[in-house]
Design a protein that fits this description.
elongated; two-stranded antiparallel sheet; 2 strands; 2 domains; binds heme C; Cytochrome Bc1 Complex, Chain D, domain 2; 3% strand
Length: 210
């Protein structure tokens, strides 16, 4: 019967088309996945941006390779989050270009109640005990106390380790144009010793909306 044949042919074509469509859909889905994977890898910008719009690096080069000052600069603009508050405008926090110099007069001023005895000590103290001395005009009054809005950068989300704190001081001395005299803990074991020692650094903190 001619009619039956037509039905048979169209049935076979329908089957082949379904199979073809199935592979087309699979192929299309796979290329979409591939496209977005490549897009994410190559084109999506790194979201870790510091307060000055500079891109923070997720993985720092080892301090043994780039030196303490460069390492400290990376910490300052990157995961230390310092530049988010300390920018050249100085509105939110004092400008730090000369802080390593003015640090010596801070510790000898009559208002100073902290424990540091020299400039380097003051810089360390400013980072880990910000309220030991609060720069005039930047404090928040809580009861009878004047408290610094700056967090202790050796704890909380920033959690800088000893090497990073010392390297930041080295960077501050260097930008102030004075000799870098701070002792930066040396980790024996060459390049990568810091990671191996477990002195893992905190990740870059993301820019917070103001
Ligand atoms: C949330 C904002 C904020 C962040 C983040 C921050 N600071 Fe501060 N910092 C301040 C403010 C506000 C002051 C002034 C009040 C005071 O004296 O504590 C200050 C004061 C200081 C001082 C003393 C300045 C002076 O003139 O005596 C130093 C040094 C300093 N910060 C270093 C740093 C470093 C280094 C980092 C990053 C590791 C950092 N700060 C991160 C807000 C911040």
């Amino acid at each position: 019967m001619p009619g039956q044949k037509i039905v048979e042919v169209s049935g076979a074509v329908g089957e082949r088309e379904r199979v073809n469509n199935f592979f087309k859909i699979i192929g299309f889905s796979l290329s979409l996945i591939l496209f977005y994977t490549l897009f994410a890898v190559y084109y999506v910008p790194d979201s870790h941006v510091d307060g000055l719009g500079r891109k923070g690096r997720k993985v720092l080069l080892p301090i043994e390779e780039i030196g303490a000052v460069a390492y400290g600069e990376e910490v300052f603009y990157g995961r230390g989050g310092c530049a988010q508050c300390h920018d050249s405008a100085g509105g939110r926090a004092p400008e730090l270009t000369d802080v390593a110099v003015r640090a010596s007069s801070r510790v000898t001023s009559p208002e100073y109640k902290g424990e540091a005895t020299d400039a380097i000590g003051y810089l360390f103290e400013s980072m880990v005990k910000p309220s030991a001395f609060v720069v005039d005009g930047y404090g928040t009054v809580i009861g009878k106390k004047v408290v610094s809005p700056m967090p202790d950068v050796s704890s909380g989300t920033i959690r800088l380790n000893k090497v990073e704190l010392a390297a930041t001081v080295a960077y501050l001395q260097s930008v102030a144009g004075i000799d870098v005299t701070v002792k930066v803990p040396v980790l024996t074991g060459g390049v990568g010793a810091q990671e191996k020692s477990g002195l893992k650094a905190a990740p870059v903190i993301e820019k917070t909306k103001e």
